[in-house]
Structures
1.
Amino acid sequence: MWWVETDYYIFAIYLNDSRLTQPNTKLKPNKIMYDFAVIGGGIVGLSTAMMLGKKFPDASLVIIEKESKVAFHQTGHNSGVIHSGIYYKPGSFKAKFTRAGSQSMVEFCQKHDIPHEVCGKVIVATQEKELPLLDNLYQRGLENGLQVKKIPPEAVKEKEPYVSCLAGIYVPTSGIADYKKVCEKYAEIIEQQGGEIRFNTKVLKINNSNNYKFLETSQGEIKAKFIINCGGLYSDRLAQLDGVNPQAKIVPFRGEYYQLTPEKTLFSQKSHLSRS
């Protein structure tokens, strides 16, 4: 079993060593046989492919993306937050990986000159009943090894003049990043490693034969020794195409964002604001 570590996720891929230690015959362009086929060109698929390329430099790899560019769906349509890990259960994988991913994402953005800012986050309580919840969150932040700080309403005002609250927590390690740019750099690195990205290619069916996966796509058949499902909101359907019962169904929901008026964006300090 190999552990593949990305900026956000660490997960296990079970590999038959003989299938990777056999000489890898480099095929001509438009090849249909690969060692790895990663389904999905979002940040999970791209970071997974990048780390596979690093760990197995002689392996052939293809990313299969049904859209015309990377980060077309959820990756490119979110608030761009670099999460600190304050919300997650202390000692859990999610807390551990979020802290590690937060640090590695900032380092990656710095290395490749990708727009980002470690601006911090203010979490506030606006009602008396929220104060115990805010305190619990503060304790969780400490247990997670974060440099969280309780701040009174006047200190919150200094950071966010238009916020009214009873108390707040300041999380200095939270930030924002341009994840579309991050994904574009991931794609560039993958191609430098020798990997391929096939756009406008939708997986229609998955067949298994002699330890190989045969992917029928909208652009023809692709054969691979291993497939990694990084299909985001469609990952449960892709699992079913491979005859796997995921025992769960992904139910998507739409998030909504509001843009402040120009006169209320002149904060003394940019911070990501959420409510406890």
Note: Residues 1-19, 21-29 have pLDDT under 50 and may be disordered.
2.
Amino acid sequence: MVPNFSLRQLAYLVAVADAGSMTAAAETEHVSQAAISVGINDLERRLGVQLLARRPGHGVSLTEAGIGVVADARRTLSAASDVLSRARVPGTGLRGSLSLGCYTTMAPLHLPSLYGAIAQEHPALELTVVEGSQEDVRRALMNGMCEIALTYDMGLGPGLATETLQTLRPYVLLAADHPLASRSGVTLQEVADEPLVQYTLGPSPSNAEHLLREVGVSPRVVFSSSNIEVVRSLVARGLGYTTMVQRWPTDVSLEGLPVTCVPLSSTVPDYRVVAAWPQQDRLSRRAAEVVSILRSTVRSSTRAAGASADRPEDEPPAGEPGRSGSPPLRERGPT
């Protein structure tokens, strides 16, 4: 059955959803407000459902049906853009746009190399990034705001497919002059009485707390911050320790004070860096290419940072596949 609505109408709907008003959407689409209004009214009539709740003087909001249609519209527009890209002359690189979700602490470590690779290999491909917590990333994937995401595997919930890019083991971050800093490994019991500096961006806030309580000890949280560089700086000043997963390229804080990464010798879970996307979706040509680039750049970035106890993407932990339809659930997240 051929749909009796147009891609332009879907684009108008998505523009209104993103901008919050028909006036702002008209500016984005470079058309008149009347064109937006007529297009969406006709779309509602053809679909037989109200998509927008009009509030005079207060803009518009999506109805429950509208939320679902907007998510589908984003995927449809992405697929249409993929058709256009495939029709281009071979060898000219990918065109169009792609939206990528990214867990906040991964952004400074992996996005620069990804942008660089895309600029070199696909200069006509426009990449936009939505950074946020694990829940922000999941929400963006499920509502169609993002086509794929770079994140951790835990806490993603059902409905998402994943491909493992890197497997990492948590470590303890200490000030360089800490008595345990020269050790080749440390157990959670050995830091149980130390002050903990906690990273608070979800789902990470209780990661260290959860790990400690798993071995029967209670953490002593003295500072907390949603900025990972603040956490690292507090540790560098000797005000506490923290647990982390990603390795930074340099072992100094933003203030220039040294820190030391000491591997955890306790039995702790590994964490997987993954590319994720809605399970029901077929990856577009652009998304598949970005995942391919991430396989290389994530591994290279982690190797450059000197990550400890990591495995390449083709060597997942025993019993864990490299790609899954629904990722395993863990209660807590890393940094």
Note: The chain has ten helices and 14 strands.
